[in-house]
Amino acid sequence: MKTRAYVTLDGLRGVAAVCIVVLHCYRYFGDMMWSSAALAVDLFFVLSGFVLSSAYDGRFAGGMSWRGFIKARCVRLYPLYLLGFLLGTSAEILSIHYHRGAIELSPAQFWTTLPFAALMLPAPGSDLFPFDIPMWSVFFEVLINLVWAILWKPLRSNRTLTAIILLSGLGLLVSVASGQKLTTLGATWPTFAGGFFRVSYSFFVGVMLYRLRNARLIPRTPSTLLLAALPAILFLPLGTGAQLITVLFILPWFVLLGSRAKSRGWTRVISHQLGAASYGVYTLHYPAYLLSYAAALEILSVDLRWFDPWIGIAFIFAVITACLILNLYYERPARKWLARRFDATIVREGVTQAR
Predict the structure, then answer these.
(1) Could you write out the DSSP letters of every residue in 59-104?
(2) Is the dihedral of CA 36, 41, 45, 51 positive or negative?
(3) 8 A C-beta contact, residue 55 and residue 349
(4) Angstrom distance (rounded) from CA 79 to CA 337
């Protein structure tokens, strides 16, 4: 089954992943918590709804079950998740040994968390995924993917889908109005319910946008403009109201415009490569950052903060390159092995794959 190529959307996904790297690797770039870069995950959710609709609507109509869909998603996501889990576990062991790290668990907490993390499930405690903190959003994405697959038939109705979007948006607004911070909504257990509203709104907006992708009123926008404008917006010091507007309206508009944009020349090449590396960049950057910083500090007695932001720029290029190599020589073979082992389908979700 053929799917249309959305190269600009791959580029947007890759740019959003790089924005997350800049946010999280504060020792390499300086403190960016004043920015709104954490909203990049909301773009991921919208992209997921759009791209998965493109890849699976026809398959669901042809009889694919929700169980087959979830197996396909786990085959897609787990290989790099496993690698991030192993790197994060190593970083946490070193953190316990040297009494350093963003989150230092006690030995008891470590062993309690380990089986949950290995199974891609949130662990007891404050942070859902202390070994690889960004994985909270991947968990929520898989969760909303499951809801969508189970309810796919009734959600074919635009009226039902619109109702779900409105209710999710209302839940998101209530969560923020209650004092929860939008940029961290869903990353911890106290904000778990708000996180579900957050992913539900953006994901189902993405599903709706896929149905509207061919509307004639949607303008053709240059890919380069979209790719440049996204980080410009995400690194603005937006207030809560502006962040809500960005999540509710602006980021979905980026996806809709990106679905109509044509990528050519070097923009197409870069977008394709960024898309291919994006999930790996998102999954692996945090434990790789912790390990690289700790190694330089403990082994070489060099504090890499002395070299920001140049060390951060080098780190981004290194992670992207490593993820492209892993995509060819680890991720694809691992997915094929898992697909054979669990009788799952490998689905091309757009040009590369959805996160």
Answers:
(1) HHHTT--HHHHHHHHHHHHHHHHHHHHHHHHHHHHHHHHHT-SSS-
(2) positive
(3) yes
(4) 10
Task: Please state the rounded mean pLDDT for residues 325-335.
Answer: 96
Which sequence spans correspond to the domains of the chain?
7-342
Instruction: Determine the length of the chain.
Output: 355
Instruction: Kindly report whether the global pTM for this prediction surpasses the value 0.70.
Output: yes
CB crowding 235-254: b at 16 or more within 10 Å, else e: beebeeeebbebbbebbbeb
Treating both helix axes as pointing N-terminal to C-terminal, what angle do 192-211 and 251-260 enclose, rounded to 10 degrees? 30
Dist CA 38 CA 181 (whole Å): 11
Residue (of 352, 313, 337, 349) closest to 75 by Cα position: 337
324: pLDDT strictly greater than 60: yes
8-state DSSP, 134: T
| pLDDT tens digit sequence for 245-284 | 999 999 999 999 999 998 889 999 999 999 999 999 999 9
Distances in Å between the alpha carbon of 310 and those of 35, 110, 241, 305, 314?
20, 34, 33, 10, 6
What are the residues whose beta carbons fall under 8 Å from the beta carbon of 3, sequence distance 6 or more? 54, 55, 348, 349, 350
